[in-house]
Amino acid sequence: DAGITQSPRYKITETGRQVTLMCHQTWSHSYMFWYRQDLGHGLRLIYYSAAADITDKGEVPDGYVVSRSKTENFPLTLESATRSQTSVYFCASRGVTGANVLTFGAGSRLTVL
Amino acid sequence: AQSVTQLDSQVPVFEEAPVELRCNYSSSVSVYLFWYVQYPNQGLQLLLKYLSGSTLVKGINGFEAEFNKSQTSFHLRKPSVHISDTAEYFCAVSDRGTGANNLFFGTGTRLTVIP
Hints:
Chain A is mainly beta. Chain A is 0% helix and 51% strand.
């Protein structure tokens, strides 16, 4: 299917466990992003990537790791999950000339117990 | 850096009534402005955008917004809302540079349309 897909859509884990959220896009967009959405904070940028093997920190990167070995995939890993990382995570992408018009995935709701 | 303020966290409105969702931004440079809508259990989708040109921008589903540079505002309006407009609405701003980390979102306004 064309578009941007996230998996899993829902995940419950325990404090200290490693969790990876997957993001896959079919447009060959250069830019990909990870945001977290929390009540009262809107969306905050965690990490972004301008191309394969190029990643950079956003506003709230602590506790997260990303990689981008292929243009279409941009996984987000929580190496040791904490309760404060309970959130809804959105992946997004855009082309090089997208004027910051992003296309979002459906989101991954993560609960850390 | 830019920032966005959405003063109204929740806006209830009766069906077929008009609505305005307020957005103010701060920036020392020229900006792009966006409204995104998020329906329940879905990702965000672009409602409309201001890049340049006419300050009145029309979007999908009958929404429009007006860019007011002097008041640094980009309020979203619809003359007659429907039940299906119930959603969360996010205003966003970015500068006109080529950077990828320069898009900032407001905290959102939850629009509830009452039958």
